[in-house]
Amino acid sequence: MIASSFSQTIFLILQIISIAGAAYAIFHALRQRADAFPATGKLTKNAWLGILAVGLLLTLIGPIVIMFWIIGVVAIAVYLVDVRPKIDGIQRGPRW
Questions:
Q1: CA dist 1 to 8, 9, 11, 30, 70, Å?
Q2: Are 19 and 60 in contact (CB under 8 A)?
Q3: Which of 32, 41, 51, 56 holds its CA 20 to 30 A away from the CA of 24?
Q4: Segments making up each domain of the chain, as ranges
Q5: Rounded to the nearest 10 degrees, how much is the dihedral formed by the CA atoms of 75, 78, 81, 82?
Q6: pLDDT (0 to 100) of residue 90
Q7: Looking at residue 32, what DSSP letter applies?
Q8: Which phi and psi angles does 41 have, rounded to 5°?
Q9: Contact indicator for 68, 58 with CB cutoff of 8 Å
Q10: DSSP letter assigned to residue 34
């Protein structure tokens, strides 16, 4: 009983973190200029917004099928770890 409750609590915490990350990623993508995305060699802004929206939906239905949650988290993580730093680098310019 306790182990089941503990694992459910951990999964709930992870799900809340992933939903917050998705919301942050969508908010970040919405605020960026559309031409910054192709300038970094990544997909277009609309494509990333679509990927992030689907990722958010998949994390929301994560408790039903855990594989959906994992796919959503991976999509969100790719944006946050790979795309966001490059977009921010383009927007800010070179750092000296």
A1: 11, 12, 16, 43, 25
A2: yes
A3: 41
A4: 2-92
A5: -150
A6: 83
A7: S
A8: 85, 20
A9: yes
A10: T
Burial of 21 (0-12, 13-18, 19+ CB in 10 A): buried
The alpha carbon of 24 is separated from its chain's Cα centroid by a whole number of angstroms, namely 8
Taken in order 83, 87, 88, 90, the sign of the CA dihedral is positive
Averaged over successive runs of 10 residues, the pLDDT of the chain (96 residues) comes to: 78 92 96 90 94 94 84 95 91 68
pLDDT at 30: 95
Residue written as tokens 């990544």? 42
Q: How far apart are CA 45 and CA 79, in angstroms?
A: 11
Distance in angstroms (rounded) separating the CA atoms of residues 52 and 22? 7
For residue 58, what pLDDT is reported? 92
Q: Which of 90, 92, 62, 94 is nearest to 76 (CA)?
A: 62
Whether this prediction's pTM lies above 0.90 is answered by no
